[in-house]
Amino acid sequence: MTSEASLQNFHSSPTTTKHKKPTTMSRVDTAPVEIGLNAAIVALTRDEPVVLTVRDNETSDGEMADGLPYGPFAPLEHRTLDIGLRTWVAEQTGLDLGYVEQLYTFGDRGRHAQPRDSDPHVVSIGYLALTRIDAAAEIQSGSWRSWYHFFPWEDWRKGRPEILDATIGPRLKEWATKDQGPSSQARPLDRQQRIRMCFGLDGAQWDEEKVLERFELLYEAGLVEEAHRDRPETAGGWGETPKLGAAMRYDHRRVLATAISRVRAKIKYRPVVFELMPDDFTLYELQKTVEAILGPHLHKQNFRRLVESAGLVEPTGEMKTRTGGRPAKLFRFRRDVLLERPAPGVRVKPGRS
Amino acid sequence: MTSEASLQNFHSSPTTTKHKKPTTMSRVDTAPVEIGLNAAIVALTRDEPVVLTVRDNETSDGEMADGLPYGPFAPLEHRTLDIGLRTWVAEQTGLDLGYVEQLYTFGDRGRHAQPRDSDPHVVSIGYLALTRIDAAAEIQSGSWRSWYHFFPWEDWRKGRPEILDATIGPRLKEWATKDQGPSSQARPLDRQQRIRMCFGLDGAQWDEEKVLERFELLYEAGLVEEAHRDRPETAGGWGETPKLGAAMRYDHRRVLATAISRVRAKIKYRPVVFELMPDDFTLYELQKTVEAILGPHLHKQNFRRLVESAGLVEPTGEMKTRTGGRPAKLFRFRRDVLLERPAPGVRVKPGRS
DNA sequence: CCAGATATACTCAATTTGAGCATATCGAAT
DNA sequence: ATTCGATATGCTCAAATTGAGTATATCTGG
After folding, report:
1. Cα radius of gyration rounded to whole Å, chain A
2. pTM of the shown model
3. Which of A87, A99, A105 should one mutate to test binding to chain B, selecting the residue with the greatest count of B CBs within 10 A?
4. Which helix (H) or strand (E) holds A329?
5. Which of A168, A271, A330, B5 is deepest in the core (most CB within 10 A)?
């Protein structure tokens, strides 16, 4: 089953449609559709990237997995999609969002756990929101969870996670050699290669932006809980499969994966880090924040040279003394860069050696 | 009126929502919603970037503006969103799409020209498709139009377009000093600054990726036809306003603007140019293609060094002789780069001097 | 006062990038 | 046949950027 999101980067084999003559569009057979707005709200608590999760925004039906704040788009109430999102988030968590950005619209059937067949098909739009921890303290409901709780294999802060070679690698290789189905010919990259590229195995290098591709691959391979929840008939051998990260409701883990991918990519070419920082900060704190998101992306004092020469920050004149060593200058974000250069960001690179 | 898409890059002032206690989600007041799938299909004919337009896919109601191929998402027929898109495109134009990528989901009211209030609210999802010109020749309906036909101010191939200083600049400055409304305080960038950054006026530099921001600004300022079509009540003085590019139906010009933005951005970090090229090509043809999309982005023979050293291409061994000068080596795309490096692309830069 | 920790300044070489020169080969005009 | 215009392609060279390291300053805690 081809996941839709992977089409962002790969060809998909075109559907072999008969070439009908162009017809006038009919409005028949449009089954009811509901639009779900889902928010991945990201903050940082002590160098830990966290996401806001809620548990009980629907009647508790025994399922206790975490979920993201979400709600249906009501076009009569919400003038725009993101007003709708802000309204739902405020209502469910008490948080007024600042920075909000649309991620992706998912529409494939069978990824949203429809209780009844008569329920409307849900198309879900994922959003990324960034917030500071002081604003984040206001929340009235929901809880902050490390995003690595849901994606342990993405946590490279202490080096390569063991789960990669201990569990994920072997199970994926096993899956790669299993039944491929007849449609495997059309696929541009075969399973082996996709695994290699996604998870940086066999000499390929790890790309911290491929969060979504990795999750979709694990889903496709049936290695995450959601895959079995969505298609119980394929649950063979699920019992002995170890849990790979905590599951989420509906397709929320996919939305979160998209959010992480986006943050990791965007931090490099737009000054979004500062949405997560307090007004004043030291350069080391800034670096720690970037590393919390990207992983310890081998930088050094070059990092300070980078942000200073890029004009991203300016000294406040104050010092921070409780630093454990020599006092550090405090800096603030230079909002003027937005008026100067087209694409400023903390453009860290993979590293030469 | 804040355009929704501009939220990709700017803060928006949070809606001041009362903090209600989290409630169980109700399914009341969900007015019917229809999802429109819209395809901006881009190709290249003789160094001219073109987009596939259709005219008569709905009952002709006198309006004869161009539109993009589109159709409603029918969840019972279309397993995924992009299968739906491919189906509609095939039906309306006879073209089987190859590379397809989702762009953005627009949902704001009043941008989609609802004939009757009783009609369902339409949320439209924009897609970008890239195709080669030989495949593009197959089309049975619709016509290819230069994308600069709709966005003349984006055409920098012969230097800075006169329309910028002759028309757009003055009219925008006039609008900037007009009535700002009471909500202008909360706006992070005022009109002057937005104009400056979007259109590279007053010393700011032109950013070829800001296609959508520019169009949204013109829409907001009432300088494009669609603005008056959507809100006839504000049509004061529209008669004497010169036409800024050809209008499109519904919000299709916005979708096209998003598509151009995306192509221009993506060509720099993913090998998407090759979706537009024939199998074999000379390096100069490749450069011309890039320039047709980005504008003459001051490169030189450094371009060849770039693509060759990046391993993006490999020589076929053949030569192209009818080149007007010394015969050129033919190259083909090295598909293997996808397996080697994480983000290869024709990463041209603005230029130092 | 010292050890440990962090902050900050500065250096230096490898690499990348911007810009230009020189030469090769074709077609068309003279 | 020769010349000119146009393109192709190889090579050089200096400027800028980047990766990596060294040296020194100043705090906290023992």
Report:
1. 22
2. 0.86
3. A105
4. strand A328-333
5. A168
